[in-house]
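Write out the bound-state structure for manganese (II) ion.
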Amino acid sequence: MDYVINTSLVQQHNAVLRADLEADYAALAGTLARRGQDIEKLTTLAQGFQVALPSWGVGTGGTRFARFPGVGEPRNVEEKLADCAVINQLTGATPLVSLHFPWDKPSDPKALFERAKSLGLSFDAVNSNTFQDQAGQAHTYKYGSLTAMSAAAREQAVQHNIECIELGRQLGSKGLTVWVGDGANFPGQSNLRGALERYLDSMRGIYAALPADWLMYIEHKLFEPAFYATTIADWGTSFACAQTLGEKAKCLVDLGHHAPNTNIEMIVARLAQFGKLGGFHFNDSKYGDDDLDSGSIDPFQLFLVFNELADAALRDGPAFKPAYMLDQSHNVTDPIESLMSSAVEVQRAYVQAALVDRIALAGFQEANDVHQAAQTLKRAFRTDVSPILAMARMRSGAAVDPVACYRTVGYRAQKAAERPAKAGASGSGIV
Ligand code: LRH
Ligand code: MN
Ligand code: MN
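---
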């Protein structure tokens, strides 16, 4: 395998931190043992955790006001993969990459597949893009894509999604994520029911092209770019569409795609209960679609989401396996640092949720002991599992402290020299 960072540098970094980590780990093992929990099981669990990286997250993002590029940004999909490989090498938690077409459209899918493989990476769900016009396309999406009044624009959008499936198939992907920005900016602009009928009609065409072992993830979002009525605005609409389309259609929950204060963990519980929870785009947000680093604003919410996932996994067994992906935009931090920290934060929530004493919790719930039920969750959430995560990384050959290691090896400075800035270059294409 091609390691992007010299493995002996990672080992040197770990050697310096090893003694302190072992002491912290032993102390936590003692605390957990008194609670009847085996730290080794939790470390094994942490080592098995994976969350996919968004290819569009490794370049500096931007807002609709400006983009302030960083240095050494990846200029093509191959360079994006190299950055993803660094994140995976140092965290040991991100061996999957989610591509976005046409931003990441490979000229030679087989060569890209091989390149990813040599870097220890493979591909998670591929994302289609009908929220912006592509160079040379015949019909505009200005007034919608899968819901457009123009049958030709709808057909073009359907064909693009089918092309994404074909590319994804060659890359070993097993899923297609469909998010459309379709909607209305003004009351009266579009017939609300008619738009959803057209959406379903278009989605049936895409669904029919899915290989047998693929899933289609329907991603909802409250608003933006449509500011009055978004066609797939909420989990209810997403659920109804997934239900209508069939078994292979599931709902994707992007944490930032809800109104502030929405009880997202309850949405997760509902979708899981009815077999339609397909996966996640993890990020954090204060307002809406902020795409901030996972766990940076409301880590308790992230924990509560994983608490529902742990409950669903217990109830449904191995059949329950939603796809975990990050979807973030980094404007003022180094994207590699943000993605590493975010992967660790999602992994942290996963391990903390495994700490919940579910038998005690069920007992408190049955006895209506509200205070102790709430404290049972809080006890797990307050436990600092950092030594477990660091030990999991060290045992997997990753870095005890990924960001510190990344800074020490000077990867960004090296890329700054190798990848001179391109005027107007954007990681995501969204500015
Ligand atoms: C839409 C979204 C969706 C897109 C990505 C770039 O806001 O979350 O997942 O594909 O951003
Ligand atoms: Mn998303
Ligand atoms: Mn989003």
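---
The radius of gyration is 22 Å.
Residues 221, 254, 256-257, 289, 327 surround manganese (II) ion (ligand 3) (CB under 6 Å).
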